[in-house]
Design brief:
With about 425 residues, this protein is α/β, with parallel strands linked by helices. The chain has 16 helices and 13 strands. Helices cover about 35% and strands about 15% of the residues. Bound molecules: pyridoxal-5'-phosphate (PLP) and zinc ion.
Length: about 425
Protein backbone atom coordinates (compact mmCIF):
# COMPACT_ATOMS: atom_id res chain seq x y z
CA UNK A 1 0.00 0.00 0.00
CA UNK A 2 1.33 3.44 -0.80
CA UNK A 3 0.09 5.70 1.93
CA UNK A 4 1.66 9.08 1.52
CA UNK A 5 0.00 11.12 4.21
CA UNK A 6 -2.53 13.84 4.86
CA UNK A 7 -3.16 16.85 2.67
CA UNK A 8 -5.52 19.57 3.80
CA UNK A 9 -8.28 20.16 1.24
CA UNK A 10 -8.46 23.79 2.36
CA UNK A 11 -4.88 25.04 2.77
CA UNK A 12 -2.87 22.25 1.14
CA UNK A 13 -0.67 21.64 4.21
CA UNK A 14 0.89 18.19 4.05
CA UNK A 15 1.50 15.94 7.04
CA UNK A 16 3.59 12.80 6.59
CA UNK A 17 1.90 9.61 7.69
CA UNK A 18 4.74 8.84 10.11
CA UNK A 19 3.94 11.87 12.23
CA UNK A 20 2.30 10.78 15.48
CA UNK A 21 -0.68 12.60 16.95
CA UNK A 22 -1.35 14.38 13.63
CA UNK A 23 -4.96 14.90 14.63
CA UNK A 24 -5.52 18.23 12.89
CA UNK A 25 -4.18 20.25 10.00
CA UNK A 26 -1.11 22.12 11.27
CA UNK A 27 -2.82 25.38 10.30
CA UNK A 28 -6.02 24.61 12.24
CA UNK A 29 -6.47 26.79 15.34
CA UNK A 30 -9.18 27.34 17.95
CA UNK A 31 -10.25 30.41 16.01
CA UNK A 32 -10.12 28.66 12.64
CA UNK A 33 -11.23 25.06 12.39
CA UNK A 34 -11.86 25.42 8.66
CA UNK A 35 -9.36 22.78 7.64
CA UNK A 36 -9.92 19.31 6.28
CA UNK A 37 -7.01 16.86 6.20
CA UNK A 38 -7.66 14.13 3.64
CA UNK A 39 -5.72 10.92 3.23
CA UNK A 40 -3.65 10.89 0.09
CA UNK A 41 -3.19 7.25 -0.60
CA UNK A 42 -2.06 5.32 -3.64
CA UNK A 43 -4.88 3.37 -5.18
CA UNK A 44 -4.44 -0.36 -4.98
CA UNK A 45 -7.14 -2.78 -6.00
CA UNK A 46 -9.19 -3.31 -2.87
CA UNK A 47 -9.02 -6.88 -1.62
CA UNK A 48 -9.76 -8.46 1.72
CA UNK A 49 -7.77 -11.27 3.24
CA UNK A 50 -11.17 -12.74 4.09
CA UNK A 51 -10.68 -12.29 7.82
CA UNK A 52 -13.89 -11.49 9.66
CA UNK A 53 -12.35 -8.52 11.46
CA UNK A 54 -12.23 -5.72 8.84
CA UNK A 55 -9.24 -4.10 10.55
CA UNK A 56 -7.36 -7.33 9.81
CA UNK A 57 -9.06 -8.11 6.50
CA UNK A 58 -8.33 -4.66 5.06
CA UNK A 59 -5.33 -3.87 7.26
CA UNK A 60 -2.97 -2.93 4.46
CA UNK A 61 -5.35 -0.19 3.28
CA UNK A 62 -5.49 1.49 6.67
CA UNK A 63 -3.41 4.62 7.06
CA UNK A 64 -2.76 3.30 10.55
CA UNK A 65 -0.93 0.33 9.08
CA UNK A 66 1.51 2.64 7.32
CA UNK A 67 1.87 4.77 10.45
CA UNK A 68 2.61 1.71 12.60
CA UNK A 69 5.09 0.37 10.03
CA UNK A 70 6.91 3.73 10.09
CA UNK A 71 6.90 3.56 13.88
CA UNK A 72 8.83 0.30 13.85
CA UNK A 73 6.11 -2.36 13.97
CA UNK A 74 6.73 -5.19 11.54
CA UNK A 75 3.78 -6.88 9.90
CA UNK A 76 3.43 -9.57 12.55
CA UNK A 77 3.51 -6.93 15.28
CA UNK A 78 0.84 -4.88 13.53
CA UNK A 79 -1.43 -7.88 13.20
CA UNK A 80 -0.76 -8.81 16.82
CA UNK A 81 -1.64 -5.32 18.03
CA UNK A 82 -4.96 -5.24 16.19
CA UNK A 83 -5.78 -8.70 17.52
CA UNK A 84 -4.82 -7.81 21.07
CA UNK A 85 -6.90 -4.63 21.20
CA UNK A 86 -9.81 -6.31 19.44
CA UNK A 87 -9.89 -9.02 22.09
CA UNK A 88 -9.89 -6.39 24.80
CA UNK A 89 -12.80 -4.61 23.09
CA UNK A 90 -14.72 -7.88 22.78
CA UNK A 91 -14.26 -8.53 26.50
CA UNK A 92 -16.07 -5.26 27.28
CA UNK A 93 -18.50 -4.98 24.36
CA UNK A 94 -19.51 -8.61 23.92
CA UNK A 95 -18.33 -8.44 20.32
CA UNK A 96 -15.11 -7.46 18.65
CA UNK A 97 -14.83 -5.88 15.21
CA UNK A 98 -16.54 -8.07 12.64
CA UNK A 99 -17.84 -7.75 9.11
CA UNK A 100 -21.47 -6.85 9.64
CA UNK A 101 -24.41 -8.33 7.69
CA UNK A 102 -25.34 -6.73 4.38
CA UNK A 103 -28.28 -8.32 2.60
CA UNK A 104 -31.12 -7.52 0.26
CA UNK A 105 -34.13 -6.71 2.44
CA UNK A 106 -36.78 -8.60 0.47
CA UNK A 107 -39.89 -7.63 2.43
CA UNK A 108 -38.79 -4.00 2.58
CA UNK A 109 -38.03 -3.99 -1.16
CA UNK A 110 -41.48 -5.45 -1.87
CA UNK A 111 -43.21 -2.96 0.36
CA UNK A 112 -41.44 -0.12 -1.44
CA UNK A 113 -42.47 -1.50 -4.83
CA UNK A 114 -39.08 -2.62 -6.12
CA UNK A 115 -38.77 -5.32 -8.77
CA UNK A 116 -36.77 -8.50 -8.26
CA UNK A 117 -33.76 -7.02 -10.11
CA UNK A 118 -33.73 -3.95 -7.93
CA UNK A 119 -34.36 -3.45 -4.25
CA UNK A 120 -32.91 -2.20 -1.01
CA UNK A 121 -29.81 -3.71 0.59
CA UNK A 122 -29.42 -3.04 4.29
CA UNK A 123 -26.10 -3.08 6.11
CA UNK A 124 -26.81 -3.81 9.77
CA UNK A 125 -24.45 -2.08 12.19
CA UNK A 126 -26.75 -2.31 15.20
CA UNK A 127 -25.11 -5.43 16.64
CA UNK A 128 -21.63 -4.04 16.21
CA UNK A 129 -19.33 -2.78 18.97
CA UNK A 130 -21.39 -0.35 21.13
CA UNK A 131 -24.41 -0.69 18.82
CA UNK A 132 -23.33 1.50 15.93
CA UNK A 133 -20.60 2.12 13.37
CA UNK A 134 -18.99 4.81 15.57
CA UNK A 135 -16.45 2.46 17.14
CA UNK A 136 -14.94 1.87 13.69
CA UNK A 137 -13.91 5.54 13.51
CA UNK A 138 -12.47 5.44 17.02
CA UNK A 139 -10.67 2.11 16.85
CA UNK A 140 -8.28 3.58 14.27
CA UNK A 141 -7.44 6.38 16.71
CA UNK A 142 -7.01 3.91 19.56
CA UNK A 143 -4.63 1.81 17.46
CA UNK A 144 -2.67 4.97 16.71
CA UNK A 145 -2.46 5.90 20.40
CA UNK A 146 -1.29 2.48 21.54
CA UNK A 147 1.21 2.12 18.70
CA UNK A 148 2.61 5.58 19.49
CA UNK A 149 2.79 4.81 23.19
CA UNK A 150 4.61 1.52 22.70
CA UNK A 151 7.12 2.98 20.30
CA UNK A 152 7.93 5.86 22.64
CA UNK A 153 6.32 8.51 20.42
CA UNK A 154 3.66 9.62 22.91
CA UNK A 155 4.23 12.59 25.22
CA UNK A 156 3.74 10.32 28.24
CA UNK A 157 6.16 7.64 29.31
CA UNK A 158 3.90 4.83 30.52
CA UNK A 159 0.25 3.82 30.66
CA UNK A 160 0.12 5.17 34.22
CA UNK A 161 0.84 8.71 33.02
CA UNK A 162 -1.41 8.74 29.96
CA UNK A 163 -3.33 11.87 29.14
CA UNK A 164 -7.10 11.27 29.24
CA UNK A 165 -9.24 10.86 26.15
CA UNK A 166 -11.92 13.49 25.52
CA UNK A 167 -15.10 13.56 23.46
CA UNK A 168 -18.10 15.89 23.19
CA UNK A 169 -21.12 13.66 22.53
CA UNK A 170 -24.08 12.21 24.33
CA UNK A 171 -25.02 9.53 21.84
CA UNK A 172 -23.56 6.62 19.93
CA UNK A 173 -20.14 8.23 19.58
CA UNK A 174 -19.84 8.73 23.34
CA UNK A 175 -20.85 5.13 24.03
CA UNK A 176 -18.37 3.83 21.47
CA UNK A 177 -15.62 6.02 22.90
CA UNK A 178 -16.30 4.96 26.48
CA UNK A 179 -16.44 1.29 25.42
CA UNK A 180 -13.05 1.44 23.71
CA UNK A 181 -11.56 3.42 26.58
CA UNK A 182 -12.82 0.83 29.07
CA UNK A 183 -11.32 -1.95 26.94
CA UNK A 184 -7.82 -0.56 27.43
CA UNK A 185 -8.48 1.09 30.81
CA UNK A 186 -7.75 4.52 29.45
CA UNK A 187 -9.32 7.42 31.36
CA UNK A 188 -11.92 9.31 29.36
CA UNK A 189 -13.88 12.51 29.87
CA UNK A 190 -17.18 12.77 28.03
CA UNK A 191 -18.59 16.27 27.68
CA UNK A 192 -22.40 16.19 27.54
CA UNK A 193 -25.18 18.79 27.53
CA UNK A 194 -27.31 19.23 30.63
CA UNK A 195 -30.19 17.72 28.63
CA UNK A 196 -28.33 14.45 27.96
CA UNK A 197 -30.32 11.23 28.07
CA UNK A 198 -29.92 9.74 31.56
CA UNK A 199 -29.80 6.20 30.20
CA UNK A 200 -26.80 7.15 28.07
CA UNK A 201 -24.99 8.99 30.88
CA UNK A 202 -25.65 6.05 33.23
CA UNK A 203 -24.17 3.68 30.65
CA UNK A 204 -21.16 5.97 30.22
CA UNK A 205 -20.54 6.00 33.97
CA UNK A 206 -20.98 2.24 34.14
CA UNK A 207 -18.19 1.99 31.57
CA UNK A 208 -15.99 4.05 33.86
CA UNK A 209 -16.14 7.32 31.91
CA UNK A 210 -16.06 10.68 33.67
CA UNK A 211 -19.22 12.45 32.50
CA UNK A 212 -18.87 16.22 32.49
CA UNK A 213 -22.12 18.17 32.22
CA UNK A 214 -21.66 21.39 30.32
CA UNK A 215 -24.10 24.21 31.09
CA UNK A 216 -23.61 27.34 29.03
CA UNK A 217 -21.34 29.73 30.93
CA UNK A 218 -21.89 33.47 30.87
CA UNK A 219 -18.37 33.83 29.50
CA UNK A 220 -18.88 31.33 26.65
CA UNK A 221 -18.59 32.45 23.05
CA UNK A 222 -21.41 31.29 20.73
CA UNK A 223 -21.50 27.58 19.93
CA UNK A 224 -21.97 24.36 21.84
CA UNK A 225 -20.61 24.59 25.42
CA UNK A 226 -19.72 20.86 25.27
CA UNK A 227 -17.40 21.62 22.38
CA UNK A 228 -15.86 24.53 24.29
CA UNK A 229 -15.13 22.31 27.32
CA UNK A 230 -13.85 19.52 25.03
CA UNK A 231 -11.46 21.89 23.30
CA UNK A 232 -10.25 23.28 26.62
CA UNK A 233 -9.49 19.73 27.73
CA UNK A 234 -7.63 19.04 24.49
CA UNK A 235 -5.68 22.31 24.85
CA UNK A 236 -4.69 21.07 28.32
CA UNK A 237 -3.32 17.85 26.86
CA UNK A 238 -6.26 15.46 26.51
CA UNK A 239 -6.47 13.35 23.36
CA UNK A 240 -9.32 14.33 21.01
CA UNK A 241 -11.15 10.99 20.82
CA UNK A 242 -13.62 12.50 18.41
CA UNK A 243 -15.66 11.40 15.42
CA UNK A 244 -15.38 14.79 13.76
CA UNK A 245 -12.65 15.07 11.18
CA UNK A 246 -12.05 18.69 12.14
CA UNK A 247 -11.11 17.59 15.68
CA UNK A 248 -9.36 14.36 14.77
CA UNK A 249 -8.90 13.49 11.10
CA UNK A 250 -7.73 9.99 12.03
CA UNK A 251 -11.39 9.08 12.63
CA UNK A 252 -11.70 9.07 8.83
CA UNK A 253 -9.26 6.17 8.55
CA UNK A 254 -11.01 3.30 10.36
CA UNK A 255 -14.42 4.63 9.33
CA UNK A 256 -13.65 3.43 5.82
CA UNK A 257 -13.88 -0.20 6.87
CA UNK A 258 -17.64 0.00 6.43
CA UNK A 259 -17.32 1.23 2.84
CA UNK A 260 -14.71 -1.43 2.11
CA UNK A 261 -16.96 -4.14 3.47
CA UNK A 262 -19.89 -2.95 1.40
CA UNK A 263 -17.92 -2.55 -1.81
CA UNK A 264 -16.26 -5.96 -1.51
CA UNK A 265 -19.48 -7.69 -0.57
CA UNK A 266 -21.12 -6.19 -3.59
CA UNK A 267 -18.35 -7.31 -5.93
CA UNK A 268 -17.99 -10.77 -4.46
CA UNK A 269 -21.51 -11.89 -3.72
CA UNK A 270 -24.13 -9.81 -5.47
CA UNK A 271 -24.86 -10.84 -9.01
CA UNK A 272 -25.77 -8.30 -11.62
CA UNK A 273 -25.19 -4.56 -11.80
CA UNK A 274 -23.66 -2.56 -8.96
CA UNK A 275 -25.61 -0.31 -6.66
CA UNK A 276 -27.28 2.64 -8.30
CA UNK A 277 -27.64 4.68 -5.16
CA UNK A 278 -26.32 4.90 -1.64
CA UNK A 279 -28.29 6.81 1.01
CA UNK A 280 -26.28 7.80 4.08
CA UNK A 281 -27.56 9.75 7.06
CA UNK A 282 -25.41 12.79 7.77
CA UNK A 283 -24.79 14.60 11.04
CA UNK A 284 -21.23 15.82 11.31
CA UNK A 285 -20.45 14.07 8.03
CA UNK A 286 -17.60 11.74 9.06
CA UNK A 287 -19.75 8.69 8.44
CA UNK A 288 -20.73 9.56 4.86
CA UNK A 289 -17.21 10.82 4.12
CA UNK A 290 -15.73 7.52 5.27
CA UNK A 291 -18.25 5.30 3.50
CA UNK A 292 -17.70 7.21 0.26
CA UNK A 293 -13.90 7.10 0.64
CA UNK A 294 -14.12 3.36 1.22
CA UNK A 295 -16.14 2.84 -1.94
CA UNK A 296 -13.83 5.07 -3.95
CA UNK A 297 -10.84 2.88 -3.10
CA UNK A 298 -12.64 -0.05 -4.67
CA UNK A 299 -13.04 1.95 -7.86
CA UNK A 300 -16.78 2.43 -7.36
CA UNK A 301 -18.39 5.83 -7.11
CA UNK A 302 -22.03 5.18 -6.32
CA UNK A 303 -24.58 7.93 -6.54
CA UNK A 304 -24.41 9.20 -2.97
CA UNK A 305 -27.39 10.83 -1.30
CA UNK A 306 -26.48 12.54 1.96
CA UNK A 307 -29.62 12.54 4.08
CA UNK A 308 -30.53 15.26 6.56
CA UNK A 309 -33.87 16.37 7.97
CA UNK A 310 -35.83 19.60 7.75
CA UNK A 311 -34.84 20.23 11.36
CA UNK A 312 -31.22 20.80 10.36
CA UNK A 313 -29.82 20.69 6.86
CA UNK A 314 -26.57 22.69 6.61
CA UNK A 315 -25.09 20.33 4.03
CA UNK A 316 -27.98 20.80 1.63
CA UNK A 317 -27.61 24.57 2.11
CA UNK A 318 -23.91 24.30 1.25
CA UNK A 319 -24.76 22.27 -1.86
CA UNK A 320 -27.19 24.97 -2.96
CA UNK A 321 -24.65 27.72 -2.30
CA UNK A 322 -21.72 25.99 -4.00
CA UNK A 323 -22.56 27.18 -7.55
CA UNK A 324 -22.33 30.78 -6.36
CA UNK A 325 -18.69 30.26 -5.30
CA UNK A 326 -17.60 28.63 -8.55
CA UNK A 327 -19.05 25.17 -8.03
CA UNK A 328 -18.56 22.41 -5.48
CA UNK A 329 -14.99 21.77 -6.60
CA UNK A 330 -14.11 25.27 -5.39
CA UNK A 331 -16.08 25.02 -2.17
CA UNK A 332 -12.98 24.40 -0.03
CA UNK A 333 -11.82 27.94 -0.76
CA UNK A 334 -15.15 29.29 0.39
CA UNK A 335 -15.93 27.41 3.59
CA UNK A 336 -17.45 30.35 5.45
CA UNK A 337 -19.67 31.24 2.49
CA UNK A 338 -21.12 27.73 2.25
CA UNK A 339 -20.99 26.05 5.64
CA UNK A 340 -21.89 27.61 8.97
CA UNK A 341 -23.95 26.44 11.96
CA UNK A 342 -27.68 25.98 11.29
CA UNK A 343 -29.32 28.85 13.11
CA UNK A 344 -32.42 27.22 14.56
CA UNK A 345 -32.05 23.50 14.92
CA UNK A 346 -35.51 21.96 15.13
CA UNK A 347 -36.63 18.67 16.58
CA UNK A 348 -36.54 15.30 14.90
CA UNK A 349 -36.85 11.73 16.06
CA UNK A 350 -33.54 11.29 14.19
CA UNK A 351 -31.81 13.35 16.86
CA UNK A 352 -28.35 11.90 16.21
CA UNK A 353 -28.03 13.78 12.92
CA UNK A 354 -28.90 17.23 14.22
CA UNK A 355 -25.30 18.50 14.26
CA UNK A 356 -25.68 22.18 13.54
CA UNK A 357 -22.64 22.07 11.26
CA UNK A 358 -21.55 19.35 8.85
CA UNK A 359 -17.91 19.47 9.90
CA UNK A 360 -16.76 16.95 7.28
CA UNK A 361 -18.81 18.50 4.52
CA UNK A 362 -16.03 18.84 1.93
CA UNK A 363 -15.41 15.13 1.31
CA UNK A 364 -19.16 14.45 1.31
CA UNK A 365 -19.75 17.21 -1.21
CA UNK A 366 -16.94 15.85 -3.36
CA UNK A 367 -18.35 12.33 -3.23
CA UNK A 368 -21.78 13.56 -4.29
CA UNK A 369 -20.27 15.45 -7.21
CA UNK A 370 -18.10 12.51 -8.31
CA UNK A 371 -20.99 10.03 -8.20
CA UNK A 372 -23.64 12.41 -9.55
CA UNK A 373 -25.51 12.23 -6.29
CA UNK A 374 -27.28 14.93 -4.32
CA UNK A 375 -28.34 15.77 -0.80
CA UNK A 376 -31.83 14.73 0.27
CA UNK A 377 -33.92 16.29 3.01
CA UNK A 378 -36.26 13.85 4.70
CA UNK A 379 -39.49 15.06 6.27
CA UNK A 380 -40.38 13.99 9.79
CA UNK A 381 -43.02 11.69 8.28
CA UNK A 382 -40.30 10.03 6.20
CA UNK A 383 -38.17 9.62 9.32
CA UNK A 384 -41.01 8.01 11.27
CA UNK A 385 -42.23 5.81 8.42
CA UNK A 386 -38.75 4.63 7.47
CA UNK A 387 -38.15 3.53 11.04
CA UNK A 388 -41.49 1.77 11.38
CA UNK A 389 -41.35 -0.01 8.03
CA UNK A 390 -37.60 -0.55 8.04
CA UNK A 391 -37.51 -2.17 11.46
CA UNK A 392 -40.73 -4.16 11.02
CA UNK A 393 -39.75 -5.67 7.68
CA UNK A 394 -36.13 -6.46 8.56
CA UNK A 395 -36.45 -7.30 12.26
CA UNK A 396 -33.54 -4.95 12.96
CA UNK A 397 -34.07 -2.86 16.08
CA UNK A 398 -32.58 0.43 14.93
CA UNK A 399 -33.14 3.95 16.24
CA UNK A 400 -34.72 6.69 14.12
CA UNK A 401 -31.25 8.12 13.57
CA UNK A 402 -30.15 4.68 12.48
CA UNK A 403 -32.82 4.37 9.79
CA UNK A 404 -32.73 7.96 8.63
CA UNK A 405 -30.71 7.05 5.52
CA UNK A 406 -33.71 4.98 4.47
CA UNK A 407 -35.89 8.02 5.17
CA UNK A 408 -34.00 9.69 2.34
CA UNK A 409 -35.13 6.94 -0.02
CA UNK A 410 -38.71 7.45 1.16
CA UNK A 411 -38.34 11.16 0.40
CA UNK A 412 -37.39 10.61 -3.25
CA UNK A 413 -38.92 7.17 -3.85
CA UNK A 414 -40.91 8.42 -6.83
CA UNK A 415 -37.69 9.41 -8.61
CA UNK A 416 -36.08 6.01 -8.10
CA UNK A 417 -36.91 3.38 -10.70
CA UNK A 418 -38.28 0.04 -9.52
CA UNK A 419 -35.31 -1.89 -10.90
CA UNK A 420 -32.67 0.27 -9.19
CA UNK A 421 -30.42 -1.14 -6.50
CA UNK A 422 -30.17 0.92 -3.38
CA UNK A 423 -27.94 0.55 -0.33
CA UNK A 424 -28.60 1.93 3.14
CA UNK A 425 -26.96 1.44 6.54
CA UNK A 426 -28.95 0.86 9.70
CA UNK A 427 -26.61 2.02 12.43
CA UNK A 428 -27.53 2.78 16.01
CA UNK A 429 -29.50 0.26 18.00
CA UNK A 430 -32.73 1.51 19.60
CA UNK A 431 -31.96 2.40 23.23
C1 LIG B 1 -26.52 5.89 14.15
C2 LIG B 1 -25.87 7.05 13.53
N1 LIG B 1 -25.87 7.17 12.19
C3 LIG B 1 -25.31 8.22 11.60
C4 LIG B 1 -24.73 9.24 12.33
C5 LIG B 1 -24.14 10.40 11.58
O1 LIG B 1 -22.76 10.32 11.55
P1 LIG B 1 -21.91 11.62 11.30
O2 LIG B 1 -22.11 12.52 12.48
O3 LIG B 1 -20.52 11.15 11.19
O4 LIG B 1 -22.43 12.24 10.05
C6 LIG B 1 -24.70 9.16 13.70
C7 LIG B 1 -24.03 10.24 14.45
O5 LIG B 1 -24.23 10.50 15.59
C8 LIG B 1 -25.28 8.05 14.33
O6 LIG B 1 -25.28 7.92 15.67
ZN1 LIG C 1 -5.40 23.17 6.45
Amino acid sequence: MHTIGWTCAVCGAHTPIAQPFSWRCPASTDADRHHAPQLVQGLAPLRSTGELNPFLGFREYLAWDAFAAESGFNEAARIALITELDEQVAAVAGTGFVTTPFERADALSDELGFLADGGVWVKDETQHVAGSHKARHLFGILLHLVAAERSGLAPWSSPATRQPLAIASCGNAALAAATLAAAVQWPIRVFVPTSANVRVTDSLRALGATVVECPRLATDPPGDPCVHRFREAVAAGAVPFSVQGTENAWCLDGGRTIGWEMARHMEETIEGPPFDRLFVQVGGGAFAASVAAGFRMSGITPRLHAVQTHACAPLERAWELAPSVGGPRHAAEHWADCMWPWEHVGHSAADGILDDETYDWLPVLRAMVDGHGSPVIASEDDVLMANEIGCRTTGIDASHTGTSGLAGLFAIREHVAADERVAVIFSGVRR
